[in-house]
Amino acid sequence: xxxxxxxxxxxxxxxxxxxxxxxxxxxxxxxxxxxxxxxxxxxxxxxxxxxxxxxxxxxxxxxxxxxxxxxxxxxxxxxxxxxxxxxxxxxxxxxxxxxxxxxxxxxxxxxxxxxxxxxxxxxxxxxxxxxxxxxxxxxxxxxxxxxxxxxxxxxxxxxxxxxxxxxxxxxxxxxxxxxxxxx
Length: 183
Prior knowledge:
Layout: H1 4-11, H2 45-55, E1 64-65, E2 71-72, H3 82-95, H4 103-106, E3 109-116, E4 122-131, H5 135-153, H6 165-168, E5 170-175, H7 177-181
């Protein structure tokens, strides 16, 4: 015997699900390195100059003249490591401000000769060469580079290995403001 209550349960549509779907797992995000950019516009002139300075030896590596006019032995030491060169480049780059330069000065590449004390402080900075602009534009670019070298040395000087003083006592730095501007 089928009662009316049982009969309606058999004919009634199923409104509630009898089982639930298992939630799908979220996909693991794949972090990709950004696509490498063309290094040509971001050529870091300071790194090139520091590498060049590290590769070239001073003219008289073991018989240099001290500040008082007497000669002293300067240990040549091993070449500067890539991380030491990069550390100096980063330190100078932090203080290099090209925001106030004219468009002509931003197209001017200047080469600076920097003499350093044993404490890692610049003792003299002079422009030895420039390309791509007038003399006035080169002077403005030189001033920006000189300020960066002097300001970032601070009161303690750059953190350079004293045993390699013969490698970094004279540096030739190439400042390319256009490369800096593209960053």
